[in-house]
Amino acid sequence: MKSQVKSLTLALMALFIAFSLIRFPDQALEASIRGLNMWWEIVFPSLLPFFITAELLIGFGVVRFIGILFEPIMRPIFRVPGVGSFVWAMGMASGYPSGAKLTARLRQEKQLTRIEAERLVSFTNASNPLFIFGAVSVGFFHDPTLGILLAASHYVGNTLVGICMRFYGREHTPTRDRSREKITLKKAFLALHQTRLEEPRPFGKFFGDAVLSSIQTLLMIGGFIIMFSVFNKLLFLVGITPIIAGGIGILFQMITLPQELTLPFISGLFEITLGSQMTAQAENSVLLQQVICVSFILAFNGFSVQAQVASILADTDIRFRPYFFARILHGLFAAGLSVLLFVPLYVDRQAFESDESPVWMRLSKHETFWSELFEKLVNIGPLMTIASLAIASFILYRRMIKK
């Protein structure tokens, strides 16, 4: 019976999307183009170098080298192996869903148990600094100082999630404490060397596989971004979003948030960029209320990113439920931290900002380091995307000829 209900639900959802696309073709096309632009201008060029580099570092044993060195830190704090430090750092630097991809990759390499992988993926999917500072703070709020507050709330909240998730699956954790084993550079280097020797592919083949695997993942991510952009727009056009907003509005009244933030909040639950932009433009709301809403949206990841993560994890035995629970927990942590840190990291910084501030903070709001970097990425992003797809096509063509 449960399986039949699921089949009916999925069929009705597909029919709803199909009929909505026929009913609102112009708006669906506009939303689709918006999602496509975001993918090929920002997501693809910003994530591709990280994905390829990560594949090379894993294959050459560098990740295992790092894992042995950081075992005494990661194991006691987060109850994950030292290789988790690499995933954590790469996840923060490149943004979601890098943490999920790298966690799945390490699980396939048997460097993580299933419980350890579920712990690790719960706190290694974060928004990258470029998006927080360049897109949200400067692009949407036109205030680079706000990026300090949003970044601190986001990354500290993510760390707290990792500490909380260390208690997940305690009954499955081995009793032997590997963090107390003697760690030496020689031992780490031998592990690196052994990993490289176990890689049978020549460098050219290995590098080509890394490029193709990364591009394949990014194509999947692009599909999710476009579809959720369209789906979010269709929900608004058919009147479902306002109905949901009415229910969330009651909750917002209880926590003293204005009704004007309900629609941006719902949009952010589906797609982060649109939700953050609508929140920044919301009327009749003070800045702190907008920051609380954006902090939760960034931490929740949005259903679009969550669908990407679920697709990546589907190739492994890592369960999605712990990750989803962690997203809610991260949202609550980030929203709470934004309230606690609003005065010291934003109000006080604006009050005492002087020539002692960093250079990029003293520039005008439209000439900051992050805004320039974001604009450059948008300008060269499409060229990088087209060039990368051309290279991938060339590699596939050469391999088809050889076969």
UniProtKB/TrEMBL annotation:
Ranges in a coiled coil: none
Source domain of life: Bacteria
**Alphabetized UniProt keyword annotations:** Membrane, Transmembrane, Transmembrane helix
All copies of domain Nucleoside transporter/FeoB GTPase Gate, residue ranges: 43-139
InterPro entries of this UniProt entry? Gate_dom, Spore_IM_YlbJ
> Where are the membrane-spanning stretches?
47-70, 120-141, 206-228, 234-254, 286-303, 324-347, 377-397
Q: Which Pfam families match?
A: Gate
The UniProt entry, under NCBIfam families, shows: spore_ylbJ (TIGR02871)
Protein's UniProt name? Sporulation integral membrane protein YlbJ
